[in-house]
């Protein structure tokens, strides 16, 4: 068999299209492809989210959606290899139809544009099990792969089970369950055999997919060297994290629905994403073949064992080197409207809560506090109120307050920040967050560090809400009495924290 060359200069770079670049895998794949010498074009619904990525200046980013035939066709122009890394996970009961339609649009555009190959990362399915008996999530992944293989464009479909890497949904689920529950009453699926794979190895196979020999049109099962149960994986995590051995008691009564609520209660992964993951874990997902090694040898870079992958993921978190997280992708159904420039744009009311304080610190010290907000640092006011709001959001299917931060000190456009997302950031000056909690309207929170004409530092804070219907207006006025405590307290405590940092010369802590 032909072997993928190890010399990246042996062939000229290809022109590749990457969908899903704002997501967990896509955001890590793009720099790998660039480093391999390829020219990269990214198709994104919101290109602004990619602006602050370290590689953004090296890639071409175009606006579009995989369900929009016109934008996909335009993005496919002059493309050699097209990567499909999107799916409608967590968008509701119609996600299978959405996945099906998007795959057809993508494959038809690729064929019309003369694309040489489609590379797709799908899900590993249990051998011999009829598709009708699979979980909806796995069934949809299998159908998308089949659409590409039947498209008339050579396609490489990589099928993976649990992906272990810092910030992946599977890893975060494993991490929080293991760390927070020394004794667990668990679903019976913790005894199901799985073959996890490190995200590093997934990326290696994806990059190699662009240069596989012509004529290949098939699936490849990809997995790490270990076949273990989820229970074994939790114990392996406990060992890697230096935790005492966990007591795990499987019971048969937890259905996938109950399992997903259990996961949502303990971990930051919301119910909409936890459910398909839990449903998939009911099936034994072990590689039926490892033919990929005929083209991408395991030597000299052997695939990581499960234990090694867990240790590497933990080290990345401890060293603040998490480049993408499961929450990098937009929450299904979350608003994406930009901040209105004036009330007329919003079609009516735009409620605003404004705060301004003079700060006894430099603008730089104030900015460090602003940029460090959220996650473990909290929101600098009435923690119970924020916690209750987060729990209420989880109860109605929202993301809640526990997504935390990708990086403890630095933010970039597109980052998730608890139940907000960074919409705009002007380093040293402005941070604007857009709410992704369940609301009867659209909401933003804006924080500014400025220096006045008198040379003094000023903190400006603005919360905005564009109500949707009568319920939206009722919501604003029902919470308005708490704004002095929540937003007023936030402004005062941020100002105090900046002053403490100036005095102590160290990182600020919440007020």
TrEMBL record:
Protein name: SDR family NAD(P)-dependent oxidoreductase
GO molecular function: aldehyde dehydrogenase (NAD+) activity
Pfam families: DUF2867, NAD_binding_10
Any single GO CC term annotated in Swiss-Prot or TrEMBL for this entry: cytoplasm
Domain called NAD(P)-binding: residue spans: 20-125
Signal peptide: none
Superkingdom per UniProt: Bacteria
């Amino acid at each position: 068999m032909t072997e993928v060359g190890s010399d990246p200069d042996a062939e000229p770079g290809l022109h590749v299209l990457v969908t899903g670049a704002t997501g967990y895998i896509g955001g890590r794949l793009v720099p790998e492809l660039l480093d391999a010498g390829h020219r990269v074009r990214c198709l994104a619904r919101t290109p602004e989210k990619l602006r602050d990525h370290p590689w953004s200046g090296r890639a071409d980013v175009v606006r579009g959606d995989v369900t929009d035939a016109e934008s996909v066709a335009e993005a496919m122009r002059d493309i050699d290899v097209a990567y499909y890394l999107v799916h409608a996970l967590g968008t509701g009961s119609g996600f299978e139809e959405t996945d099906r339609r998007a795959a057809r649009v993508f494959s038809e555009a690729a064929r019309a544009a003369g694309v040489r190959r489609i590379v797709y990362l799908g899900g590993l399915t249990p051998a011999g099990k009829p598709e009708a008996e699979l979980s909806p999530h796995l069934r949809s992944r299998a159908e998308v792969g089949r659409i590409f293989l039947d498209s008339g464009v050579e396609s490489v479909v990589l099928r993976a089970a649990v992906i272990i890497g810092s910030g992946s949904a599977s890893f975060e689920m494993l991490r929080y369950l293991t760390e927070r529950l020394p004794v667990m009453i668990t679903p019976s699926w913790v005894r199901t055999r799985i073959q996890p794979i490190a995200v590093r190895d997934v990326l290696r196979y994806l990059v190699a997919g662009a240069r596989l020999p012509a004529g290949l049109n098939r699936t490849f099962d990809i997995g790490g060297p270990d076949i273990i149960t989820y229970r074994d994986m939790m114990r392996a995590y406990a060992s890697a994290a230096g935790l005492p051995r966990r007591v795990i008691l499987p019971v048969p009564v937890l259905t996938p629905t109950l399992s997903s609520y259990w996961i949502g209660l303990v971990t930051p992964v919301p119910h909409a994403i936890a459910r398909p993951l839990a449903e998939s874990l009911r099936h034994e997902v072990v590689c039926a073949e490892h033919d990929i090694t005929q083209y991408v040898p395991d030597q000299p870079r052997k695939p990581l064992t499960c234990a090694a992958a867990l240790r590497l993921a933990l080290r990345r978190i401890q060293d603040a080197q998490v480049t993408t997280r499961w929450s990098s992708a937009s929450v299904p159904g979350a608003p994406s409207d930009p901040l209105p420039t004036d009330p007329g744009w919003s079609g009516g009311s735009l409620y605003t809560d404004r705060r301004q304080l003079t700060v006894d610190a430099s603008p730089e010290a104030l900015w460090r506090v602003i940029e460090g907000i959220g996650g473990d640092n909290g929101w600098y006011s009435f923690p119970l109120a924020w916690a209750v709001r987060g729990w209420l959001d989880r109860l109605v299917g929202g993301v809640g307050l526990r997504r935390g931060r990708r990086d403890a000190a630095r933010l970039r456009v597109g980052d998730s920040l608890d139940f907000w997302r960074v919409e705009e950031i002007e380093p040293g000056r402005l941070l604007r967050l857009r709410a992704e909690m369940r609301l009867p309207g659209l909401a933003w929170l804006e924080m500014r560090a400025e220096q006045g004409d008198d040379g003094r530092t000023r903190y400006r804070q603005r919360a905005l809400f564009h109500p949707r219907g009568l319920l939206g207006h009722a919501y604003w006025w029902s919470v308005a009495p708490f704004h002095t405590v929540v937003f007023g307290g936030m402004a005062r405590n941020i100002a105090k924290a900046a002053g403490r940092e100036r005095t102590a010369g160290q990182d600020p802590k919440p007020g």
